[in-house]
Amino acid sequence: MANLFVKISLFLLVITIPFYVSAFPTGAGTCDVDAMATQGHGQSSAQGFSTGGGYAITTTKSGQQISISITGGKSVEGVLIYTLDSKGSRIGTFTVPSGYQTKSCTGSSGSTLTHTNQNLKNMPINFMWAPPSGSSGNVTVRAIVVQNFANWLKLQDVSFDPSSGTSSVSNVTIPQSGSTGSDGSDGGIGSWFKNYLLFVILMIIVIILYIVSSVTETMLRNQRAKAKNYRN
After folding, report:
1. Residue 66: helix, strand or coil by DSSP?
2. Where are the domains of the chain?
3. Quick count: other Cβ atoms within 10 Å of Cβ 121?
4. CA–CA separation, 156 vs 217, rounded Å?
5. Which residues contact 75 (CB under 8 A, 6 or more apart)?
6. Domain Reelin, which positions (predicted)?
7. pLDDT of amino acid 121
8. Which of 54, 96, 98, 152 would be 146's cystine partner, CB 3.0–4.6 Å?
9. Average pLDDT rounded to a whole number, residues 89-116
10. Is 81 helix (H, G, I), strand (E, B) or coil?
């Protein structure tokens, strides 16, 4: 019984590993780049993770839209990118390319993009973004790229003028009125439990199997002891 329990436990652990060594396979686990360490993947192991680590955001004017690009060297598995106005509200609309989807966060429904799969995405990654009609003032782009589950990098914020596309690295702290999910949650224990639900369920199953196997093994030992005493 003990050997059976060990085999089952190892099997359950092995099938969960792919979920926790890569990017979340169907999109970012958080709406906010600043919450990645607590609501998403945990603390990053990547060198220079808080300053981009060689990845950067650039913007250029393209007709009535803005081309927003993520540049860097190594291909990535996951992306979270969104745009904010000067008050911290999500603004504008991304054109959704293949392999990406809008993420449901507070604010403009099309202002946040994330990946739909963990296939490698080569650099540069280009997005088209349109400002809302009648908008004015600079817009800030925030983004994270995920190389694998343990290694993610927060890119330096970039502010740009929608009328010209001219951009610069932003040193302004912007209030995050759009950082919560569409249900108004702000992460914490609830978000952690949601992200690691499969792992939690499997660990509960392992514990139950351990208890059952221990009880069964004890019962079998008692039965063998009784049978031995009976024969004697």
Report:
1. strand
2. 2-16+196-231, 24-183
3. 20
4. 58
5. 120, 121, 122, 123
6. 52-152
7. 94
8. 152
9. 90
10. strand
56-62 sheet: strands from edge to edge: 56-62, 65-71, 125-130, 93-95
Which H/E stretch holds residue 62? strand 56-62
121-180 tens-digit pLDDT: 999 999 999 998 877 789 999 999 998 877 888 999 999 998 888 877 765 444 444 444
CB 105 within 8 A of CB 182: yes
CB 113 within 8 A of CB 190: no
Residue type, position 168, single letter: S
Which residue type occupies 40?
G
| DSSP code, position 105 | B
Q: Are the C-beta atoms of 89 and 109 separated by less than 8 Å?
A: no
Structure tokens at 174: 């912007």
The secondary structure element, H or E, covering residue 130 is strand 125-130
The number of C-alpha atoms within 13 Å of 95 and in the hemisphere containing its C-beta is: 12
Tokens of 207: 């514990």
Identify the CA nearest to 59 among candidates 170, 172, 159, 198. Answer: 159
> Containing H/E element for 47?
none
CATH number of 24-183: 2.60.40.4060
